[in-house]
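MarR family transcriptional regulator
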Amino acid sequence: MSTTEPDAELDGDGETDDRGDGGDEWDRDGDLSELPPSAKLVYKVLEYEAPLTQEGIAAESRLCSRTVRYALGKLEEQDLITSRACLEDARQSKYRLAA
């Protein structure tokens, strides 16, 4: 066997957890494991800093606004976040984790 081929016998069952996060934290309802990395980052930002506007999420995560919009859409599809109109500026929404 070459050194570049994975050794399936080392894991016992041949399956590996390639997320590198320990598994359980991101498997809340099994939804986060299937999301892109940007959505996971946005989720984590909201976990610690919510409620935030898209602009606030972009600033905290250092992602561009287009990527934040995409990530928010993916999170909303999975019902992991909710949004409400921002009282300070009705043109914006504030996002938070779904209860």
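thats it. The two ends are 49 Å apart (CA to CA). The first strand starts at residue 81 and ends at 85. bye
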